[in-house]
Amino acid sequence: MICCYLHLNDFAVQLFRTNINRQKQFIGFIGTQLDSGSSAGRWEKWRPTVSLVQHEALVIDRMVLLYDPKYPKLRDIIRDDIAAVSPETEVKPVEITIADPWDFG
Fold it and tell me: Torsion angle, CA of 92/17/10/87, rounded to 10 degrees?
């Protein structure tokens, strides 16, 4: 089963895939707008990447998070927040540089 979610406001293209072993794996971009936040107030707003692991009925085994090298602090915050709410989820950050994130061609 493959399901895609495209959120144009913060360039979050998220691909959810269940493989042969029935492990639920997620590949997506860390959004620099909607996923942002470093104060305690970040838990009061919707952050698409963190919200994926906050569903009790859906346990994601592995998340591959693509991130821009200009945002290592955001990468660390998202990784740590996912670990806090879903310790069973393995998080693999992958650095990716995209010259123009709005060029879908």
Answer: -40
The candidate with the shortest Cα–Cα distance to 72, out of 99, 32, 21, 15, is: 32
pTM over 0.85: no
Q: Give 35: exposed, middle or buried? Use CB within 10 Å, 0-12, 13-18, 19+.
A: buried
Q: For 26-41, what is each residue's pLDDT tens digit?
A: 999 999 999 999 999 9
**Residue given tokens 């072993």 in the structure block:** 21
The 3-state secondary structure of the chain, one letter per residue: CEEEEEEHHHCEEEEEEECCCCCEEEEEECCCCCCCCCCHHHHHCCCHHHHHHHCCCCCCCEEEEEECCCCHHHHHHHHHHHHHHCCCCEEEEEECCCCCCCCCC
